[in-house]
Amino acid sequence: MLIAVLERLLWSSRRPLTPGTRAGVGAAAILLFFLAVLEWADGDEPHYIGLMATAPFLAAAFAPWRSVLVAGGLATGLGTVFAVMGGARGQTTLLNVIGIALATGLAAAAAAVRQKQAERIAELSHLAMIAQQAVLRPLGPTVGGLSIAGRYISATAAADIGGDLFEAVETAYGVRIIVGDVRGKGLDAVRLASIVLGSYRHVAYDRADLRAIVADLDRAVARSVGEEDFVTAVLVEERGGTLTVVNCGHPAPLLLRRGNVIPLEPPSPAPPLGFLPSVKARVERLEPGDRLLIFTDGLAEARRDGRFFPIAERAWRLLGHGTVGDGLASVETALVEWVHGRLDDDIALVLLEYTGPQPGGPMPSWEVGTAPSTPARSAPHDGGSPPRTPLPGLPPDRPDAGPIQPSGPRSTRTA
Q: Is 374 helix (H, G, I), strand (E, B) or coil?
């Protein structure tokens, strides 16, 4: 009852008490109760008054400075009571009571500094989270002829902040997706991720070839980072049921088809963005119902007792059913359970499902056959520009790339 009265007198805010405040004051009250019982049982001569100075410091570890004053005031009052009951013989008892009061002041000052620092950290984390949410726009539920979902899993409980990135846009050349991972963490990583995404959102509408997009992004990264910084990335294009993948030092996407999981490894390895990657494309024919998981290395490198998370072995069971959003939720649940809730790196996940050819959608030149080809129509977008005029002798939908030879219905080739 005394604690409640003192708390009401000293706590001027009308907001409810936080769990930290309750924990700090409660721990200090329990300690003082124990010391009071011990002092009472010890007799008239006070011996444990000095130990009551620990109560305000215990409260300062959790509670704000006002609550520390509550605990310190209660400790000083109890010390004074036992000093008077014991006759206050000698200077030692008096000094102990004065020491409790001084300890209360010091503990309150320490609590004020801690609280100010905690508020600043929380504000910075909140601003960083807002900045990243502005950079990473939500995906889905559909883009073009694809069902798509994106998910960001932060390794830091305090804030969703990191350098993993993803984006999906519908262009005149089909649906284009990027998933990347910036080396490093924190605001510098968010800044570089915003540069990559800003450049991608511009050139994805203008370049007819993914390799040209890679060259543009590489220049953007090289202008913005030091010699040891880089960005791994995988770029995916779906056009008329044909999937094109280029990989710049990134984990290979996983293609899920009729119970099988196929890693789409690149024809030849390429370095990350920032290191002049020379990429070769991998091309696959999609079937309705195919799903593609694109992820950053935080998923591939998540481990428990030295064992990596078996994403390839579990991919179909986790991702092959329900909606694409349900699939990503299942992966996150299984991952958190695997690592016992402790992740070492942030993770970006994108899961897409090919639902079948889209009527009137962009068609690759190698799918047109002998039918007369028509210029690709520009899909609505923000800040994009229409495709450029084709060069003489080149297909209308690939103005800056050479013709691609026909391939079988499920062939894999390099471009």
A: coil
CB 49 within 8 Å of CB 75:
no
Bond into 141 cis (ω within 30): yes
Does 350 have pLDDT greater than 90?
Answer: yes
The average confidence (pLDDT) of the chain is 80
Sort 36 into a burial class: Cβ within 10 Å, 0-12 / 13-18 / 19+: middle
DSSP SS3 for 74? helix
- Angle of helix 2-10 versus helix 19-42 axis, rounded to 10: 140
Percent of the residues in the chain that have a pLDDT greater than 70, as a whole number? 77
pLDDT band of 40, cuts 50, 70, 90:
confident
Q: Is 23 exposed, middle or buried (0-12, 13-18, 19+ CB in 10 A)?
A: middle
Residues forming a β-bridge with 261: 256
Q: What are phi and psi of 83, to 5 degrees?
A: -65, -40
Report the distance separating Cα 85 and Cα 292, nearest Å.
Answer: 78
- CA-based nearest residue to 231, from 192, 266, 270: 192
Strand 242-248 relative to strand 413-414: parallel, antiparallel, unpaired?
unpaired
**Segment (H or E) for 258:** none
Quote the DSSP letter at residue 405: -
Of 75, 63, 93, which Cα lies nearest the Cα of 30?
Answer: 75
Phi-psi region at 241: left, alpha or beta (left = phi > 0; alpha = psi -120 to 50): left
> What region does 45 belong to: left with phi over 0, alpha with psi -120 to 50, or beta?
beta
Do 293 and 148 form a contact (C-beta atoms < 8 A)? no
Q: Could you give the CA distance from residue 145 to residue 363 in angstroms, rounded to a whole number?
A: 12
DSSP 349: E
Q: How far is it, in rounded angstroms, from Cα 59 to Cα 56?
A: 5
> Residues 346, 318: contact at Cβ < 8 Å?
no
Amino acid identity for residue 392 in this structure: P
Extract the runs of DSSP E, i.e. beta strands, from 227-336: 231-239, 242-248, 254-257, 260-263, 282-285, 291-295, 303-304, 307-308
Give exposure, 76-102, as e/b (b: 16+ Cβ within 10 Å): bbbbbebbeebeeeeeebeebbebbbe
Are 358 and 145 within 8 A, CB to CB? yes
Decide if 182 contacts 237 (C-beta within 8 A).
Answer: no
Question: What is the Cα–Cα distance from 118 to 62, expressed in whole angstroms?
Answer: 11
